[in-house]
Design brief:
alpha+beta, elongated, disordered N terminus
């Protein structure tokens, strides 16, 4: 008889554990979206993204590795929500140091007027990016008026040691515009 009550107790405990696990999973499913800027993250370009071509960072400088960093801007639109994205790609074999928040940003601009969309500008933290890797800094998601075309305006750069001084090479890039839902 003790065995039967132990089995019942185990079933009760297992049921309670499953209920707690399901509750936690339900909370995770309704949690806020992933953090945007200032953190660098992995990304996947989807059909609702419009991206610029890549621009080489350090194109005018002859500094080891700097010529192998590339920047690109993207705008992500979903209905009336839009978000600017700064992407940095390191094609060198070694880690590169990305500039800090006072020099790197992503923001949305209204295509017809050139006005910056309020609350859409976000800064990106200083970070390192490994050789052969890409990372994205997502600006805040904002609501944009229906049928409004927006594009991403971004600036990014690499801080490189050259002899006894550091220099910063920054590039600005704008994506092609993408309209919100009409």
């Amino acid at each position: 008889m003790q065995f039967a009550s132990s089995a019942a107790a185990r079933r009760g405990i297992v049921g309670a554990v499953l209920a707690v696990a399901c509750s936690v999973a339900g909370l995770a499913a309704t949690a806020a979206p992933a953090a945007a800027a200032p953190y660098w993250q992995s990304y996947t370009i989807a059909s609702n993204w419009s991206c610029s071509t890549e621009a080489r960072v350090g194109a005018g400088q002859i500094v080891s590795g700097a010529q192998q960093m590339y920047l690109r801007s993207c705008v992500v639109v979903s209905g009336v929500y839009a978000q600017a994205v700064l992407i940095m790609t390191n094609r060198s074999d070694f880690s590169q140091r990305l500039e800090g928040p006072d020099r790197q940003y992503a923001r949305l601009v209204i295509a017809s007027t050139g006005a910056i969309v309020p609350d859409s500008t976000s800064s990106c933290l200083e970070s390192y990016i490994a050789g052969g890797q890409s990372a994205a800094c997502f600006a805040r998601t904002v609501t944009v008026s229906r049928c409004t075309s927006v594009y991403a305006d971004v600036q990014g750069g690499v801080l490189t040691s050259a002899g006894s001084f550091d220099f910063v090479e920054r590039v600005r890039r704008s994506s092609t515009s993408l309209p919100t839902s009409c």
